[in-house]
Amino acid sequence: MRLSRFSLLAALLMGAVGCKEADLAPVVAKIPPLAFVRYINAVPDTNNTVVRWIDKVEFTPQTFTNVPFRGMGMGGYQGLEAGARTLRVFTYDPNLNSSTNGLGATTAQLTELTHTFEAGKYYTLLHLGYARTGSTPQQRVLVIEDQLPAANTSVSIRAIHAGLGIANVDLHATATTTTTLVGSTPAFANVGLTNGTTGISAYASRATGAFAIQAAATGTTTSLVVAAAPAGVAGTTTADPIAGASVAGSVMTAIAFPASVTGSRAAAAAAPSIVFFLDRQPARTTP
Q1: Residue 251 placed within a domain
Q2: What percentage of the chain reaches a pLDDT higher than 70?
Q3: C-alpha span between 95 and 120 (Å, rounded)
Q4: With contact defined as beta carbons under 8 Å apart, do 42 and 261 qualify?
Q5: Which of 279, 265, 277 has the alpha carbon at shortest distance from 45?
Q6: ω before 137 within 30° of 0 (cis)?
Q7: pLDDT reading at 44 higher than 70
Q8: Which residue among 21, 32, 48, 226 is least packed, with the fewest CB closer than 10 Å?
Q9: How many domains does the chain have?
C-alpha cells in the first residue's frame, strides 16, 4: 500500500517535471513574408511627421517618428508584413507632451494610404506636396518601388525630382561642386516633378570616386542647386563599409527638394537642395 502510494506520487512528480521541460522548449517565431519600406518627408510647409500603421502591430515599422522635412525615418528600410497595408501620416510636435510617453505628440492627420506591398520588394514612401489648405499640389504619400541594381563593383546612383515649384531639370554628375556644366552631358536629362511613376530616373553606374550632382533647368548650363555625394567609408576586418562615392557596391538616391515655406514649422531650408540617401550598403567585410 505504501509502495503503491509512493509510486503514484513519483509518477505525478515525473509528469510535472516533463511538463516543465516541455514548457521550457524554445519557441520559434514565425516570420511572415516581408516587404521593406522607408519613409522620406518632402512636405515643406508643416511640422515634422510621424507614420502610424493602423491595421497591424507586429511586423510593422515603429521608427518613422518625428521625421523632419528633407529627412528619412530612422533605420532606413524596415520590414513590413506583405499584403494590403494601411498607414496614416500625422504632424508631430516634439514640444507637446504625449499622454503615453511624454516625448512629443501627434497633432493633425495629413493623409491615409492603403497599398499592397509585395514580399521581397523595396519601397520608398515619399511624402510630397503642401499641407496648407489651398496650396497646390496637396500633400500625399507616393509609393515608389525601388528596383535596386544587382550587386556590382561600381557606384549606382539615381535621382528623384521632389522640388515643388521647380521646372524640369537636367541633373549632371560632375567631378566637384564647382565644375562647369558647359559641355557637360546630363546624367539624367529633363527630369520633371515626380508623381510616383515619372520624375524618377533609373539607376546609373559610375566608377568609384568623388562626384557631385548639379541641377540646371533643362537645356541650360546654369547650376541651380548642387551637392557633393558622401564619400563613404571603406570596410575593414573589424568594421563594415558605409556606402558612398568612394566605396564600390554603394547604391544611392539623390533627391531634389524645394526650399521650406517661409513662416512654416518645416525644418528650415532657405533654398532648394539636393540630399543623398543610401539605398544599399556595400558587401560586409567583417566575419
Answers
A1: yes
A2: 87
A3: 38
A4: no
A5: 265
A6: yes
A7: yes
A8: 21
A9: 2
Residue type, 41: N
DSSP 153: S
pLDDT tens readout for residues 214-260: 999 999 999 999 999 999 999 999 999 999 999 999 999 999 999 99
Residue with cell 526650399: 259
CA angle 232, 233, 238 (to 5 degrees): 150
Angle at 123 between CA 119 and CA 54, to 5 degrees: 80
34: cell is 516581408
DSSP symbol at 25? S
Looking only at the bridges linking them, the beta strands covering 212-217 and 78-81 are unpaired
Amino acid in position 239: A
pLDDT at 12 over 80: no
CATH classification of the domain holding 117: 2.60.40
Judge whether 139 and 43 are in contact, CB under 8 Å. Answer: yes
